Amino acid sequence: MAVLYVDEQGAEVRVTGRRIIVTRDGETLKDIRIRDLERVVLFGPVDFTTPAMHALIDAGVETTFLSAGGAYRGRLAAAEGKNVLLRRVQFRRADDAAFRLEMARTILSAKLANCRYVILRYARNHPSEKLDAAALALADAVCRMTAQTDVQACMGVEGAGARLYFEALGSMVRREFAFTERTRRPPRDPVNSLLSFGYALLTSEIVGALASQGLDPDAGFVHSIGYGRPALALDLLEEFRPVVADRVALNLVNNAVLDAAHFEQGDDGGVRMTEEGRAKYLQTYHRIMSAEVASRDGQGRTSFRGALRAQAGRIRGAVVGEAAYDPYTPR
Predict the structure, then answer these.
(1) Half-sphere exposure (CA, 13 Å, Cβ side) for 75?
(2) pTM of the predicted structure, to 2 decimals
(3) Least buried of 70, 145, 146, 198, by fewest C-beta within 10 Å?
């Protein structure tokens, strides 16, 4: 199944028969059968015709809307979330301090372990004392996580570990780009722009995966609940940030897929990719998300996109008490 990304500003998405057609200035840019589509992602000012909306809804194809810079704006999907009893259990879990603490320990430990995995993977071909020290410190942070007695304390350990990780990430960025610290809203340099864009894409996919399980993406356990904030999606995002979004960013920079010409200054004072840069990013992102990886249960192969769905199912299992939550870590 394919994911259709439409990032050409001013393009129009329409339906002809059982096909989705993307055009701009009279030129056909993309033409794909609806039955081959898994998801549609629209960036920025793209015209989306009503017949195309209805055709995708009827086919059960989710459409996600992002800003030109990658910020999540919303989604269009067939009616879902009918399991109000599941959501009621989820809301009760969100008020259960013991459950939230266990989820925080589990998810944030996995996030730090996955950060360590990225460092060690890079260090195989680029050994460095700095990277070794960062990997050791992250292993210690994972051990300390289990001793924390509330969610805020867990977040504190994770925050300290993340700072160490991003310092190490800076030494993993090669060529003309520099990365010294994580900045956001807006990202202040090309590498931060890549990270923010990747995190937003992942969040949009996770929102859909959670909703497909009947869960409310806004009612989280680790991140605080707030108006318009997909807290549960942000919880699950923690496990996949390093192994997907950070991997994509390093791939694009270190393999010279993107250079300085693929970035521009945004209206908000931050840095964002050009249209050409976004197209190159999406090609690499889709390739990595679709590539085969070992299944979390050790049974066969899956993809990162499949792993997202599996983890959403595991969160649902934890919410209803079927099993303790088993986080995603690469095998």
Answers:
(1) 28
(2) 0.88
(3) 146
